[in-house]
Amino acid sequence: MKKEFKNNKGRTRDQYTAVLEQINSKIDLLAEGHKMLDEKFDRKFGELDDRIDKESGLLSGKINHVETNVKDSFHSIADYLERIEKEVIIERKKGIAVDEFLLLKKRVDHLEKISQ
C-alpha cells in the first residue's frame, strides 16, 4: 500500500510537472507574441513619426508660399490704391479747373448779355 501511495504520489507529481511545463510553454509563447507586437508598434510609430515630419515640412513650405503670396498681393494692392489716390487728386484738380471755367463762362455770358 505504501508503494502504491508512493507511486501515485510520483505520478501526481509528474502530472503537475507536465501541466506546469505546458503553462510555462504558453507563457513563453505569450511573452514572444507580446514582444513581436511591441516591435511592430515601435516600427509603425516610427513610420508615423517620419510621415508626420514629412507632412509638417510640406505644410510649412505651403504656409511660407501663401505668406509670400499674401505679402506680394498686399504690396500690389497698396501700389494700386496709391495710383488711384494720385488719379483722384489729378481729377479733383481738373474738376476745380472745370468749375472755375464754367463760372467764368457764366460771367462772360452775363457780361455779353448786359453789353448787348
Structure description:
With 116 residues, this protein is mainly α. Helix content is 98%, strand content 0%. It contains one helix and no strands. The mean pLDDT is 87.
Can you give me a brief rundown of this structure?
The chain has one helix spanning 2-115. The chain is an all-alpha fold and 116 residues long.
- SSE series: H
Beta-strand percent range? under 5%
Largest sheet, described in full? none
By helix and strand content, what is the structural category? mainly alpha
The count of helical stretches stands at 1
Low-confidence stretches: none
Tell me the radius of gyration.
Answer: 49 Å
**Span between termini:** 165 Å
| Percent in helix | over 70%
Global shape: rod-shaped
Using DSSP, what is the number of strands?
0
Mean pLDDT: 87
Q: Which key terms come to mind for this protein?
A:
98% helix, 0% strand, 116 residues, mainly alpha
How is the topology of this model organized?
Blueprint: H1 2-115
